[in-house]
Amino acid sequence: MSEPARLTRARTVAELLDAAFTLPLVGDVGIDGIVGLLPVAGDWLTVLPSTYIVYQGYRLGLPKRACLWMLLLVLVEATLGSVPIVGDALDIAWKANRRNVARIERHVDAR
Fold first, then answer.
1. Alpha-carbon distances, residue 92 vs 6, 8, 26, 29, 50 (angstroms)
2. How far apart are CA 57 and CA 61, in angstroms?
3. CA dist 6 to 25, 88, 94, 96, Å?
4. Distance between CA atoms of 80 and 61, rounded to whole angstroms?
């Protein structure tokens, strides 16, 4: 798979997870924020697609340290997202997947 295709896939997954819908008074909400409303299990269901973004970063040559940091963001989001109410707000506001894609983009642009 080519470099632009990998980056496009990572962006697409991040947008679906973090900003697939726009809700009045709330703004952009993704599948992560909606599925995260399911107690505990909802937040852990989105870990696999979030990890796919990290995998694409790894395949694009991101340093291992950066990949580990991205995995940490995914785990923190899933763990804190499991907390009722506060976790749901975090899922909607923090957008860890978009942050991880931005990290990948910075790496690709720097090369």
1. 25, 22, 8, 6, 15
2. 7
3. 33, 29, 23, 18
4. 29
Given the structure tokens 């090369």, which residue do they identify? 111
pTM, two decimals, is 0.92
Both tokens assigned to 67? 């990949």
- Tell me whether residue 7 is exposed, middle or buried, using C-beta atoms within 10 angstroms of its C-beta: 0 to 12, 13 to 18, 19 or more: middle
Q: How far apart are CA 88 and CA 43, in angstroms?
A: 9
> pLDDT tens, position by position, for the chain (111 residues)?
899 999 999 999 999 999 999 989 888 999 998 888 888 788 889 999 999 999 999 999 999 999 999 999 999 999 998 888 888 888 788 899 999 999 999 999 998
Tell me the residue length of the chain: 111
At a CB cut-off of 8 Å and minimum separation 6, what does 3 contact? 60, 108
